[in-house]
UniProtKB/TrEMBL annotation:
Keywords: NADP, One-carbon metabolism, Oxidoreductase
Annotated EC: 1.5.1.3
Name under which the protein is recorded: dihydrofolate reductase
Family: Belongs to the dihydrofolate reductase family.
Gene: dhfr
Catalytic activity: (6S)-5,6,7,8-tetrahydrofolate + NADP(+) = 7,8-dihydrofolate + NADPH + H(+)
Alphabetized GO MF terms: dihydrofolate reductase activity; NADP binding
Length: 189
């Protein structure tokens, strides 16, 4: 059975995921939403292994320096520009297929779940790749200015699951912003 690729993202109603290198609702912090992200991406299902987070260069640099690399996860950054890994990056690769190859070869004994955490073009590549995929989407129920967007989630390719273990089903609210967690699974398994 091939490995499930997971994507995790928070989106505005227009599928906006970023604005000027920050989350759209910046400087408002959604601490519980961030905790959900950390729990999902850092909790390994296999003792002695770590999850992998794959991100683009801009996503890496959008993470506050004090939080890089993301703790208890193997951090892989994609960049065609960087010739050497930026400080804190565990692995630097030029493209998504190289990242997946790295996970399945050199990191096979260490890696558990694979999480794509941004940006937009990497989500697109992950969503269109073959094999089993899951999208963990936080639907922010308020519109903010955005300049970066998640590709449409095609209902012909993905189905919304009624529930998923460890993902709260009830409406969330923090700092006057409501949101809900959704999990989509690719129909092709």
């Amino acid at each position: 059975m091939s490995r499930v690729l997971n994507g995790i993202v928070a989106v505005c109603p227009d599928l906006g995921i970023g604005n000027h290198g920050n989350l759209p609702w910046h400087p408002v912090r959604l601490s519980n939403e961030f905790k959900h992200f950390r729990t999902m991406t850092a909790t390994s299902s296999v003792t002695g292994k770590q999850n992998v987070v794959i991100m683009g260069r801009k996503t890496w640099f959008s993470i506050p320096e004090k939080n890089r690399p993301l703790n208890n996860r193997i951090n892989i950054v994609l960049s065609r520009q960087c010739k050497a890994p930026p400080a804190g990056v565990h692995h630097l690769v030029s493209d998504f297929s190289s990242a997946l190859r790295l996970v399945d070869t050199e990191l096979a004994d260490q890696a558990d779940q694979v999480w794509v955490i941004g940006g937009s073009s990497l989500y697109k590549e992950m969503m269109e790749s073959p094999g089993p995929r899951r999208l963990f989407v936080t639907r922010i129920l308020k519109q903010f200015d955005c300049d970066t967007f998640l590709p449409e989630i095609n209902p012909d390719k993905y189905r919304l699951l009624p529930k998923f273990p460890g993902v709260p089903e009830e409406l969330q609210e923090e700092n006057g912003i409501q949101y809900r967690f959704e999990v989509y699974e690719s129909k092709e398994q």
